[in-house]
Structure formats: structure tokens, C-alpha cells
What we know:
This protein has helices at residues 13-20, 47-55, 68-77, 93-96, 119-125, 161-184, 217-226, 294-301; strands at residues 2-7, 25-31, 35-37, 42-44, 59-61, 81-85, 103-107, 130-137, 147-154, 233-238, 244-255, 272-273, 278-286, 292-293, 308-310. By secondary structure, it is α/β, with parallel strands linked by helices. It folds into two domains: 2-197, Rossmann fold (3-Layer(aba) Sandwich); 206-310, Methionyl-tRNA Fmet Formyltransferase, Chain A, domain 2, CATH 3.10.25.10. Strand 13 and strand 14 (292-293) form a beta hairpin. The longest helix is centred in the middle third of the chain and has 24 residues, at 161-184. The radius of gyration is 22 Å and the shape is elongated. The termini are far apart.
Amino acid sequence: MRIVFCGSGDFGLPTLRHLAGGGVDIAAVVTQPPRRAGRGGKVRPTPVAVACGELNLPVVAVENINDPACVSDLAALGADVIVVADFGQMIRAPARDTAPHGAINLHGSLLPALRGAAPVNWAIIRGLRETGVTTFRLVDAMDAGPVFVRKAMPIDPSDTAADLRGKLSVLGVAAVTETLGMLAAGLADGDEQDHDQATLAPLLKKSDGRIDFSADGETVRNRIHGTWPWPGGQARYVGPDGKAIDVILARARLADGGDDAEPGAIGSDLSVATGRGRLEILEIKPAGKRLMAWRDFANGHRAGPGARFTSPAPR
């Protein structure tokens, strides 16, 4: 089977590497143009473009895949199907129709749940116990096309969004491979989604990382994990001396015990009170500093009774 692969971010990399290993003919890889990134604002190619250099795959960066010239170029490739994973552009009907099997997309949830740009993050923030990946046929409505394959995976309480995204990207290899096999055998029309059961997973905003310690411990932990690495679980650490610094909480777990301490108060065991239950912080990133173990931060800032976390100051 001859394919065009459309991808930009790292979510599709395991699938691209697997497909490049054999079994399909990759006519071209389409990705986003290089963008400025990082603290220095250096122009960087997408992770997919970098991987194509390593894999010796033909790659083209396009600003808009739906531009008539791009559509014409796609048609000239003679692909049987377009495989899409973490591409970052809507692919409209003229572009999809350049391949007889259209375009199939790898999505990081069990559709119709969590349609949108940030399904992995919201699965954790909302406290889901299970998520997965879905392959489906692209249509003009967002993540609404007929489904080919779903593969489920439990969410471990220790998973951050970065952890879970990595696991799901690997699971996606099997889902895409199975889907291509079905298409090649003429067995894949796809099953319509139950649109009444659809939920949304919108792109995260900076404010989605704000931590409210008056919530219960599990909710606070889920917010911390679901927003790592961006926008991060945002809080303010106030030391016993009243000095305050902004921090990002990266990883936490539920702690035993509970008391009537004010939410955010740090105990003698360095656990943090929440609206219900206590939380053990594991990793923290002070503003402008590197990620570090909570115990190291606590030792350096004399955390303990008299110290506390609060919500970050409004900006």
C-alpha cells in the first residue's frame, strides 16, 4: 500500500518509524514548517521532519495543505491513503480525496470521548481511569468520522500527560497497522460514532494549570499531572519567612492521613493539605530554574510547618 504520512509532533513518531520499517510504500511525509521555539526563539523543524532526515524519507513542509497547489502535488503522488497523526492542520475534502481510501487519523482517546486538541491532558485532569487511541476516517467535522479501530489503556495514577502521551503513541502503532491491513483487504468502511456521547478536549490555556488547593487531593494531583509539561501545575510557594516564589508542580501522589489544616499548608512530613486529604509533592520546578526533587527544594527553602502553597497571583 502506498501512503502519504502527515504529521508534525512526536505523537506520530512511533507510527512513522514503524511504517518506514517496511510493509508500506511512503510516497512522502508532509509536515508543518519550522517554527520558533524554546527560550532563545531558535527556528526549529518539527520532530517529524527531524525523524525523516534520520529515516531518509522524502519530506515537505507546507503552511496549508489545502492550498490548491499542495492538493495538486498530493494527487501526483498516487497514494492509496493518507495517514495523519499529530499534524496540526485541518485536511479538507479536496486534499483527502487525492487518495482512494481518503485520510485516516490517529487520535489519542477512545472516540467519541475527548474530541479536540488535548485529549491526553483532559483524560487525566478529569480523572478518567481509562483512555486509549482511535483510528477514524477524517471528515470536515472535528474528530467525528467513522471509526476503524479503538485500543484501550488504563491510566496509572502516576502518569503525567507526557507519560501517558508516550504510552499512547506506542499503542497507536498497532491501531494504524491494523487499520491499513483492513483497508488493503477491503474490509474497512468504519463505524459511525455516537455523536450524542461526544465530549470535548479543547486546547489547553495557560490558566488551565492554576492549582486550587481547596479541591480534594485527587483532583489536585490530576490537575498537576494533566498539565505537565505545559502549562504546568502553577502555584506559589510561601516560606516560613513569608518570602514567596512562583513554582510549577510536576508530579505528586496521594498521601496517607488528613487533618484540619488549611488547604495548601505544608506539614512536618512535607505533605500538603488539600480540601480533602493530603498530597505528597514529588517534583517541582521553581520559576526560571530546573526541575528538581521536592525534597531537595524543601531542604533549600526550609519547607515545613509555617510554609504553604497558594494559588498563583493573577496575571
